[in-house]
């Protein structure tokens, strides 16, 4: 648990964990763990995720403890910062990736950069350089798979990403034993919907 009060709960979600139970998996999800925690601590709270992560994206996840707080959070601006380990990296130390993203034809769930896509903007900053780069990524827009698609499109795919990685990045990931995407939800900044306090929460995980 990273943060808790009467209205909000922030936890670190490990890679490989689903947010909600599904037809194929009914236990071991974040919802199961959080509801179990509420019962153990005697809290009459429900599971209301404010932020959601892909199964293989790990790091900070923010939850509301009740429908009232959840509704207030829908009107609150959240600034998200992710850390990513990429195969190669940008030529400049910081900037923006401005490339529209569209969905591939059904039944595919994947996305790609296309002139017909929705406007998509990502802010980046290089934290460490080398054969593998460590980047701070902040999605200005919130498209599905946005950070993974943008990094792959720019030529520096996220390591461990099986869908959007290149042949070279997948080979490098295999050599490093990276079997899930190296993308961590590192930091959340927002105004607390009840107290009005400026909040900055950070994950204990990293790439």
Kindly describe this structure:
The chain has 207 residues and is an alpha+beta fold. The protein is built from four helices and twelve strands. It is globular. The chain has helices at 30-40, 67-73, 146-154, 167-176; strands spanning 3-4, 8-13, 48-49, 58-64, 79-87, 94-98, 101-103, 111-113, 121-128, 132-139, 183-191, 198-202. The longest helix is centred in the N-terminal third of the chain and has 11 residues, at 30-40. The model has no long low-confidence stretch (mean pLDDT 95). A hairpin with an 8-residue loop joins strand 3 and strand 4 (58-64).
Strand segment tally? 12
Percentage of residues assigned to helices: 10-25%
Beta-strand content estimate = 25-35%
The first-to-last residue Cα distance is: 19 Å
Radius of gyration: 18 Å
**SSE arrangement, N to C:** EEHEEHEEEEEEHHEE
Number of helices: 4
Could you list the spans in which at least 5 consecutive residues all have pLDDT below 50? none
Structural class: alpha+beta
